[in-house]
Design brief:
Keywords: Aminoacyl-tRNA synthetase, ATP-binding, Cytoplasm, Ligase, Nucleotide-binding, Protein biosynthesis. With 1022 residues, the chain is α+β, with helices and mostly antiparallel strands. It folds into 6 domains: 176 residues, 3-Layer(aba) Sandwich (Rossmann fold); 203 residues, no CATH class; 192 residues, Alpha-Beta Complex (Isoleucyl-tRNA Synthetase, domain 2); 149 residues, no CATH class; 142 residues, Isoleucyl-tRNA Synthetase, Domain 1; 60 residues, Ubiquitin-like (UB roll). It contains 31 helices and 42 strands. Strand 23 and strand 24 form a beta hairpin. The longest helix is centred in the last third of the chain and has 19 residues. The two termini are 61 Å apart.
C-alpha cells in the first residue's frame, strides 16, 4: 500500500459532504462550543498560503472539541459586499454580483481566466466547516436582517439613566408629559429646551426633526473623509498614511449630510466590557486608546465683541490660569464667524491646505507645527483678560469640542506651538503657573508641584486644584465637570453601489423607515457604477428606485410625486454593516422571519473562540461589540459581549524574488560636435530603454557602484551596450566629431519577479522571465561566472502584487492538504509572523509517509494485537498529554514537533500494536484529518473518526520505575547503569561496588567516600 494523499483526501472530503459530518445541531444534549473565523472577502485573487493559517488553527481546535464530546458550531461564509468588487466592476464593466459569485463558486472572469473559487479552495484543505449554515452578506436573504437592525437602531434612543437603549416611543411619551428638561439622553449637542405643551404644539414634521437628534442612527452634517478617486466616504480605519487603503487615492476632509450611528453612547460599556473578555492585552489597549476616556471639565470662553462662545473640554481644569491662547480645529463652525477681515485670506488658505490631510495623519504627525491667528480674542472666565484664538490642524473637529485651551507651560504640544509662533501678532509670552522651571520644556506631570500665579488656586496641587476650579466654573455658569471620550459616532453612509441599500425613503427631506414586513429592499440594477453627472451616488443612476407607499413596493423613479411615491436613499451601508452581527445569523441561518430565533440565540449564546487578524481592532471588533450590546438592550442578543476569547493569528510572510539590474536609456544623436568637452547641435530621438539584469553577486560587487543620482557608468555595462548597439561610440576628450552616436544613462533598479520562475538555489529561469512581460523581451543579462543568474531575496508581506504568492492549491496537489495543515502549524507560534519556505514542506510530507509505515507496508496492513511495551505506552501517553495541552494553549507548532518525536520513537521501538496506533490516529486527527480517517478505516472502524472520544491521558505510563545513573570517579563519568528507583543508598552502593567496571576503575583501591543521591548521581571519591 502507498500513501496517496490526493486519492485519500478526495475520498474523505466527499464522505464528509455527503454525510454532513460537521453539521451542528441546535439544542443538543451535548455541551456547545462555538468556534468562529473572521470570514473572508472573496477577491478574484483567491487564497494564498497565508490566508488559511487562522482557519487551520480554528479547525484543529474545533475538531479537538468534537473529540471531547462538544456540539461544535464551526461555520463559514463570505463578507461579500465591498468596494473592491465595485472598483473591479467599474474597470471591467462586469456586474459586482457576477464577479462576487465567480470568486466564491469558481468559474471564468471576463477575460476568460479561470477562477478557482474560495469554496473549492477551502474544501480542498479539509476544513470541518458546517457549510449548511453558509452566509453571504450580499444576498438579499441576509441583508434583509441588516436592514431590519438598522430600523431598530433608528427607532431607539439611549437612556443614560438606565444605561441602555430604549424604544423611541418611550422618549416621545416623556416629551408629551414633561418636555425634555429632565431627559438624560445621548443626543446632539445643540438641543433646545422645550416644555410638554410646546412639544404637543409642534407639528409632526417638527417632532420628527427633534427625535432625529436623539435616535441611535441619525442624519447629520458631519466632517467626513471624502475620497474623490473612489467617489465615497471612508472610515478612519480605511485610510493609511493619508490615502485610501484601497487604491491609494487622496482623501480630504469635507462636510456632508450622512447617516451616523451613536456608538459614542456605548463608550463606557465598550470600555468596561474589555475587563470581561479573554483578548490579548494589545487589542484591548488599542480599543481603550480608540475609545479614549478622559475625566475633566467643559469650560466656556466668551468671544470678545461677539455673542459667540467657545466650549472646550480639558482634563486639566487646575491649569485654567495658565491659558495663553486657544486653538480651534480648522473645520470648527466658529472659525468663519470670528475671523477678522485682515486674517480671512490666511485662514482660508490654511483650511484648504488642511482639508487634504486625514484625521489619522494629523493625529500621528507630532513634529509639524502649523497654524494661523484668526484675529479674534476670547475672554478668560475669571480674569477677563483677552486670549488670542488660533486655528491649528493638531486640533480635530471630531474630538472633544474641536477646541483647546492652550496651556504651554503644562503641555508639550502647546509649548512647541507657542515657541514656534513666538513674537508674532496674536501669540503672547508663555505664562508659568507651576513652581517649576519651564525654560527648556513644559512641565506635564500631575504630581510634585504647587500652583502659582493662579489666584484662588495658589499653593494647590492637581486634585485639589481640579476640584476648586470646577466648583468655581460651575458657580459662574462657565463650566462643569465632565467625562469625555475620543470615540466619535460612526459615519454609516457610503456613496457607492455595492452595499446594503437603506430601507429609507424621504418625505419633505425627512427619513421614513419602510415597514420591516416589506424587507428586503433589494439593490436595483444600474447601468453605471459611477456617481451621476450631478454628483449623486451610483444609485442615482437607477431607473427603478422610488418607494410607493400605497403599493409598498419599489417603483420607477419617474413616478415620484411626493404624495404617495417618494425617493429612496441613494447611499448604501458601509462594509462593516453586514459583519457586525453575522455570528448570530450563523446560529439560525435559514430563519426567514428573524436574524436568529430566541431559542437558537439562547443555546449558542456567544462565540467561545474567535480567530482573525489584529487589523480589525478598531474597526470590525469595535462595531460588532456595539451592535451586540444594542441587540442585548433590545432583548435579542443573550450576552453583553459577542466573543469570549479572541486570538489574532500572525501573518505568513512571502519570500520575494528581485531581479537586480539597470534600466538603460539609449538615445540616438544625429550630429554631435565635441569641443573642449562642450556638445553642440544635438538632436535626440525618443530614448530607447531596455533592461539589463545583473546577477546578485555582480550587482553587489564594488565594481558595480552607482553615483549619487543612482546612475551607473562602468566598463561592464559599456561593453554590453556597445555589443548590443554597434553604432555606439563613447565620446572621449580627444574626439572632435562623431556623426552617428548613441548616448546612454543607466539607473539601478530591483524589480520583483514571480517566485515560480526561481528554483530553491535562487536561480532565475531567464527564458521564462523574458517571456513574462513585454518590457523584458529584449533584456540582456550579466550572469555569474558559472553562467547562472542569481536573484535577490527579501521577506515581506505575501501579496499578489509582490509576485510572492504561493497558492494552497499547488501545495495540496503536490503534497496533500494534511501536509499543508501540519506545515502551517509547524511554522511557529500562531500569533507571530513567520516567513514561508516551501523547502520545509518535503520534511512534513516525509513525516506523514513515516507515520503510514507504522500501519501498513507496501502490500498490507501490518497492525497487530500484540501487547504494547512500557516504552510504547510511554511514547503514546506523552504525546496524548502534550497534544491536549498544546491545543488548549493554542501552541500548535509544538504539537507537530511532538508528533514527529512520537513517530520516530515508535518506529525505533518497532511498534505496530493496535493498542497504540488506534489512539494515535485519533490524536493526530485534528491536524491531519484525511490520513487519520483513512487509518481509522483501515483499522476496521466504521463511520468518521471526527467524533470518536479523544484518548485519556494516563499519568502512570509516564512514571519512571528505573533510572539510568551516570557513575563518576572523582567527578569524571566513566559508565552508566540502570537501577530501580526504589533502591536505598546502601543497596545502590552494594550493587555499584560489586560491578566489574567499578572494580576495574578502582584497581584494588578503596574509595575515601561514596556519594549517592538516589535518583540523581553516583560519585566515588579517592
Amino acid at each position: 500500500m502507498k500513501y496517496n494523499p490526493n486519492e485519500i483526501e478526495a475520498k474523505w472530503q466527499k464522505y464528509w459532504a455527503e454525510n454532513q459530518t460537521f453539521a451542528a445541531v441546535n439544542n443538543s444534549e451535548k455541551p456547545k462550543h462555538y468556534v468562529l473565523d473572521m470570514f473572508p472577502y472573496p477577491s478574484g485573487a483567491g487564497l494564498h498560503v497565508g490566508h488559511p493559517l487562522g482557519y487551520i488553527a480554528s479547525d484543529v481546535y474545533a475538531r479537538y472539541k468534537r473529540h471531547q464530546g462538544f456540539n461544535v458550531l464551526h461555520p463559514m461564509g463570505y463578507d461579500s459586499f465591498g468596494l473592491p468588487a465595485e472598483q473591479y466592476a467599474i474597470q471591467t464593466g462586469q456586474r459586482p454580483e457576477d464577479t462576487t459569485s465567480v470568486n466564491i463558486d469558481g468559474g471564468y472572469d471576463k477575460e476568460g481566466n479561470k477562477i478557482a473559487g474560495y469554496r473549492k479552495q477551502l474544501d480542498k484543505i479539509g476544513f470541518s466547516f458546517d457549510w449548511s449554515r453558509e452566509v453571504r452578506t450580499s444576498n438579499p436573504d441576509y441583508y434583509k436582517h441588516t436592514q431590519w437592525i438598522f430600523i431598530q437602531l433608528f427607532n431607539s434612543w439611549y437612556n443614560k439613566d438606565n444605561d441602555k437603549a430604549e424604544d423611541i416611543s418611550t422618549l416621545a411619551a416623556i416629551f408629551e408629559k414633561e418636555g425634555n428638561a429632565t431627559v438624560n439622553a445621548v443626543c446632539d449637542d445643540s438641543i433646545e429646551s422645550f416644555s410638554s405643551s410646546e412639544w404637543n404644539a409642534f407639528d409632526k414634521e417638527q417632532q420628527e426633526k427633534i427625535l432625529l437628534q436623539y435616535r441611535l442612527t441619525y442624519l447629520a452634517e458631519t466632517e467626513v473623509n471624502w475620497c474623490p478617486g473612489l467617489g465615497t466616504v471612508l472610515a478612519n480605519d480605511e485610510i493609511v498614511n493619508g490615502v485610501s487603503e484601497r487604491g491609494g487615492f487622496t482623501v480630504v476632509r469635507k462636510k456632508m449630510t450622512q447617516w451616523s450611528m451613536r456608538i459614542s453612547a456605548y463608550a463606557e460599556r465598550l470600555l468596561q466590557g474589555l475587563n470581561d473578555i479573554d483578548w490579548s492585552e494589545s487589542i484591548k489597549e488599542s480599543q481603550r486608546n480608540w475609545i479614549g476616556k478622559s475625566v475633566g471639565a467643559t469650560v466656556e470662553f466668551n468671544i470678545q465683541n461677539s455673542d459667540a462662545k467657545i466650549a472646550v473640554f480639558t482634563t486639566r481644569p487646575d491649569t485654567i490660569f495658565g491659558v495663553t491662547f486657544m486653538t480651534l480645529a480648522p473645520e470648527h463652525e466658529l472659525v468663519a464667524q470670528i475671523t477678522t477681515p485682515e486674517q480671512k485670506e490666511a485662514i482660508s488658505n490654511y483650511i484648504e491646505k488642511t482639508a487634504k490631510r486625514s484625521e489619522r495623519e494629523r493625529m500621528a504627525d507630532v513634529k509639524t507645527i502649523s497654524g494661523v491667528f484668526t484675529g479674534a480674542y476670547a475672554e478668560h472666565p475669571f480674569t477677563k483678560e483677552p486670549i488670542p484664538v488660533w486655528i491649528g490642524d493638531y486640533v480635530l473637529a471630531g474630538y472633544g469640542t474641536g477646541a483647546v485651551m492652550a496651556v504651554p507651560c503644562g503641555d508639550e504640544r502647546d509649548y512647541a506651538f507657542a515657541n514656534f509662533f513666538k513674537g508674532q501678532s496674536g501669540m503672547p509670552a508663555i505664562k508659568n503657573i507651576f513652581d517649576k522651571d519651564i525654560s527648556e520644556a513644559a512641565f506635564g506631570s500631575k504630581e510634585g508641584f504647587k500652583l502659582v500665579d493662579s489666584d484662588f488656586l495658589n499653593e494647590l496641587g492637581y486634585k485639589e486644584g481640579t476640584y476648586k476650579a470646577i466648583e468655581a466654573l460651575e458657580k459662574i455658569n462657565q463650566g462643569k465637570g465632565k467625562t469625555n471620550y475620543r470615540l466619535r459616532d460612526a459615519v454609516f453612509s457610503r456613496q457607492r453601489y455595492w452595499g446594503e441599500p437603506f430601507p429609507v425613503y424621504y418625505v419633505n427631506g425627512l427619513p421614513q423607515m419602510i415597514d420591516s414586513k416589506y424587507l428586503p429592499i433589494v439593490l436595483p440594477e444600474v447601468e453605471k457604477y459611477l456617481p451621476t453627472e450631478d454628483g449623486l451616488p451610483p444609485l442615482g443612476n437607477a431607473e427603478v428606485w422610488a418607494w410607493d407607499t400605497t403599493k409598498n413596493e419599489v417603483v420607477n423613479t419617474d413616478l415620484v410625486d411626493h404624495l404617495t411615491v417618494f425617493p429612496l436613499e441613494l447611499n448604501t451601508m458601509p462594509g462593516w454593516a453586514g459583519s457586525s452581527f453575522y455570528w448570530m445569523r450563523y446560529m439560525d441561518p435559514k430563519n426567514e422571519n428573524e436574524f436568529a430565533s430566541k431559542e437558537a440565540l439562547a443555546y449558542w449564546e456567544s462565540v467561545d473562540l474567535y480567530i482573525g487578524g489584529n487589523e480589525h481592532a478598531t474597526g470590525h471588533l469595535l462595531y460588532s461589540r456595539f451592535w451586540n450590546k444594542f441587540l442585548k438592550d433590545k432583548g435579542f442578543a443573550p450576552t453583553e459581549e459577542p466573543f469570549k476569547k479572541l486570538i489574532n493569528q500572525g501573518m505568513i510572510l512571502g519570500t520575494s524574488a528581485f531581479v537586480q539590474g539597470v534600466w538603460a536609456e539609449i538615445s540616438y544623436r544625429d550630429s554631435v560636435e565635441v569641443m573642449f568637452g562642450h556638445e553642440e547641435s544635438i538632436a535626440f530621438d525618443k530614448p530607447r530603454p531596455f533592461f539589463i539584469g545583473v546577477s546578485k553577486n555582480v550587482f553587489d560587487s564594488e565594481q558595480f557602484r552607482s553615483d549619487q543620482e543612482g546612475l551607473i557608468d562602468n566598463s561592464i555595462l559599456r561593453d554590453l551596450i556597445s555589443e548590443k548597439f554597434p553604432k555606439l561610440k563613447f565620446i572621449n576628450s580627444d574626439e572632435n566629431l562623431l556623426s552617428e552616436c548613441y548616448d546612454y544613462r543607466c539607473s539601478k533598479v530591483k524589480p520583483r519577479t514571480y517566485v515560480g520562475f526561481v528554483n530553491s538555489s535562487d536561480e532565475l529561469d531567464l527564458e521564462v522571465f523574458k517571456k513574462w512581460r513585454e518590457e523584458y523581451k529584449t533584456a540582456e543579462f550579466i550572469t555569474e561566472k558559472d553562467g547562472k543568474f542569481i536573484v535577490g531575496r527579501e521577506v515581506e508581506k505575501m501579496s499578489k502584487s509582490y509576485y510572492n504568492v504561493v497558492t494552497p492549491d499547488d501545495i495540496c496537489n503536490e503534497y496533500g492538504a494534511d501536509t499543508l495543515r501540519l506545515y502551517e502549524m509547524f511554522l511557529g507560534p500562531l500569533e507571530q509572523a513567520k516567513p514561508w519556505n516551501t523547502a520545509g514542506i518535503s520534511g512534513v510530507f516525509g513525516f506523514l509517509k513515516k507515520l503510514c509505515r507504522l500501519y501498513f507496508d507496501e502490500h498490507n496492513l501490518i497492525v497487530t494485537d500484540e501487547v504494547p511495551t512500557k516504552d510504547n505506552l510511554k511514547t503514546l501517553h506523552k504525546t496524548i498529554k502534550k497534544v491536549a495541552d498544546d491545543i488548549e494553549n493554542f501552541s500548535f507548532n509544538t504539537s507537530v514537533s511532538q508528533f514527529m518525536i512520537c513517530v520516530n520513537e515508535l518506529s525505533t521501538q518497532g511498534c505496530h500494536s493496535r493498542a497504540i496506533l488506534q489512539p494515535l490516529a485519533i490524536v493526530i486527527s485534528p491536524y491531519a484529518p484525511h490520513i487519520a480517517e483513512e487509518l481509522w478505516s483501515l483499522l476496521g472502524k466504521s463511520g468518521s473518526i471526527a467524533t470518536v472520544p479523544f484518548p485519556v491521558f494516563e499519568p502512570k505510563h509516564l512514571v519512571e520505575s528505573s533510572k539510568e545513573y551516570p557513575v563518576s570517579f572523582n567527578g569524571k563519568m566513566r559508565f552508566t547503569i540502570e537501577l530501580p528507583l526504589d533502591l536505598t543508598k546502601d543497596q545502590i552502593e552494594e550493587i555499584i561496588m560489586k560491578d566489574e567496571r567499578t572494580i576495574k576503575q578502582l584497581e584494588g583501591r578503596t574509595p575515601n567516600k561514596v556519594i549517592i543521591v538516589p535518583g540523581k548521581i553516583i560519585n566515588l571519591v579517592g
